[in-house]
## 1
Amino acid sequence: MDELLKNLPAPDFVKLDIEGHEAFAIIGMAGTLTRHKPILFVEMNAGALAAQGHNVEGLRDMIEHLGYYAAALYPPEATWDDLQFDVLFKSKPIPE
């Protein structure tokens, strides 16, 4: 993804709903995410992630390690233990 995006304008929003392959996309665009810090909207589907050898906690940790925090879950009543939900990730503020 980083290679594909290098000749395009910097993204300010990225939506990932790719049936369990979200971790692979995050790994592939880690450079872009680190440099440009677009807002992320990521589907968390526990079953689909497990089929690819990943899990919700690991994907969340991967994204947080790149300087993001979970700003909101969707639907609003969702919890991290649900089988499927979406997460809005925003860039952590840089300390002054």
## 2
Amino acid sequence: MRDGLTGLTPDRRPGPEKMTITKNTDDQQQQILLDWTAKQGRILTDEGKATEYYCSERGFPFALSELPHYHLERGETHQVFHRWAAAATQSPIVGAWTRPLFIGKWEHSTNNEEIVYNIQTSSLFIDLRIPTCKPVSRWEKLLGSDSNEHIRSSRQVIESMSDEDLRLYARQHAFAGYAVISQEKNNQMNNLPLCTRHHCIDWNYVSGKPRPRPNKWFIEGKSDGKSPFNVWKEWSYATDQNGQCYYWERWERIDGDDFGKGLRLAMRRKGKRKQVSCKKEDVDAILVAVGDHFNFIVGRQYNDNAHTRYRDANNTAELVDSSLQQGDRDTAISYLSSFGGHGTISSGWKVDCALQSWQHGLSVFDCLQCNNEDVKVGSTGDACTSWEVVIGDDFWEVYECSLCRDGLQQLLLSPKKSRL
């Protein structure tokens, strides 16, 4: 049975403890949700001071190419990421992770406030962060009786939302891209490995307003004598005026990811079959899986010139607020057209947590609008980065795969409740 907030069944929630729901009034829940994105930003940036910390004078220089949206803004993520994948080495944080604690300055956030599914391969990653106080039940009622027609209805649900509901719906986060692992000698964190993330799909990204500092952090794993570790901390790369990391996050492994040593799959949609006419431009999408867990994400569908009209908006929540104040629902809805979620392969590739809660229980291939009854895996070489997967009418590039070509084809074809 679903709860009234997230639609998740309790025993499928990540983390060692079951989520508890505080009984607040509707107004209190609404105010908590409206502040969710801003609070996440305050924690992540030391209340806006983080950009000042990244400079040569303080010992934290960076190259422009390290910025998370650098390659996205140059339109080169497919070429650059695929080249990196061909030379990738094993990452220390391959797995499916939940985040029980996010802390910075005088605030913190826990898995009581948001559900987080972070699936990381040695190349691509997808990170989903969904507040638990979303009024899911109210939104699902907008679906009406045509719940099986989820593709048409998803747009219909969002268009049917009130302005206030659109503002609430904007308060969530999902982003995806490539994670580069490096080592910096003699750093202040005892030579811990560094992760720098580069984004290609980002819920919070507003064109013309790229993030001004790297998404770069140290990885400190807790070892129990076994490898790999099951818990690790993410420490900010730069430090504050007191020489301390200005934020940190605790990550814990989710049961069923085979400790990152079993199935590993990372694919990115390249486009449509040439013989298939497509009126809309190809929309970016990524599918990653580790063990039994998968995440998927699909980019926005819009013609974007909003950054010229809403120059004060630094993220999607602020842009949606500004556009709705101007009566511009079309821009708000277009910025909310990205979607994604988490699920398990053993369930038959069913989604159990999603940005669009009405996708719960659907096949990921239905959500991606590709027919997995028609799957072909071709290649121009032995390395998996040379493989190209056709699922229905979609071409996908493989960035990483622990299976042979036939094994991957069977995995994507199989609707059965079994794992390879």
## 3
Amino acid sequence: MLRGLYCTRTPAASRRQLHIWASTQKGTTLHTRPHGRGIRHIDLTDVQPASSETARRINRDIILEFIRENQPLSRADLARLSGLQRSTVSQIVEQLIHEKWVREGAQASAARGRRPTLLHLNEDRIVLAVDIHPKHATIATVDLNGRLLARTTVPLTRDSAGSTQLIAEAMLRLQKDTPGKSTEGIGVSLPGRIDTLTSRLIFAPNLHWRDFDLQSTLQKKMKLPVHMENAATACLLAELTFGNLDGNRDVVLITVSEGVGAGVFANGRIITGHHGMAGEFGHIVLDESGPKCACGRTGCWEVFASTRAAVRYYLDLAPGARSIPFSQLLQLAESGDTHAAHAVEKQAHAIGRGLRTVIAALAPSTILIAGDITSAWHRYSPILERVTAKLTLAGAPPRILPAHDGDLARLRGAAALVFQRRPQRT
């Protein structure tokens, strides 16, 4: 699948993929924006000069992405769109067919001459996507176009080994239900941070899986490569891959669920930081006298803005009410329950209050929100827009938009981890 692109002249359809490529290639000296004359800093301890192999890989990714965005299309169409020589396009297409990324389909009509054969992505190539929450995991099969083919849910506990066994069994069932499909790998979206050196989960206060090598355990059970990432960063990668972020070089994606996480795309690069810990805005303290957070501190942003916080607000407003799932809280708000509506409104204000730090620190042009709250976006959007307009120090406030597919964004993000090259760590 697309890993990102680079070329010197960029057709409009590929601009988004160019900045993805620039953000995902380790040590590359290629860029999507021209630089003025002078000396630009190069870190010589972590550099990989461009080579002929780099150019071949970039051209391959260009062709693959044009197929995904414009399928079905012919080799001649690819040459016209990409600006590459027809012979180069033919060689790349044959490679992609051999690797089973691409298939030939029907023949198109032609005014004269030979009828061209149309190309499309091989929909029989899939990944297993896993979205882990503290109390449950959703497992799905996803094809190269980002479509969810099937999904199931399993309960999770603090028993990491036992929970992983349940996840593996669910994946095996999904594989049996999709005969004839080739599984490329496994992508896992997690409510925590992955150490960039060890690929181990090092910070997941809401999950309580301590000192557990999830990646190796799943790889041994499934005999497939496993890619893991923080849920917010995975969602961000999915938006860059399958969404419409052309021209955006500064985007922050906020996941709102049992906790609050952030994925950062700054100046055209995915930022993960030291040990992969960049973006933990959910654990910035807003009020030291606030409720205790799972991380051990008190008054973190997520204890005011998470779905758990919204349910807590509801229970405070409606004495005697029993704890309910957040999805039910939204249903009550829609049905006219004033306590539920006030709880949701209070959560929306808390989300907006925490965005102050995000806006001041990163100055994004766009903030995307992922999670169940997007299903009631009409309740959250006006409040978030008003709050962020007041918080912006200078210039226009960032756009506040729901992520594609809302609560399914994390699954699509998990799939994108397999289809994409690993992000460059900065």
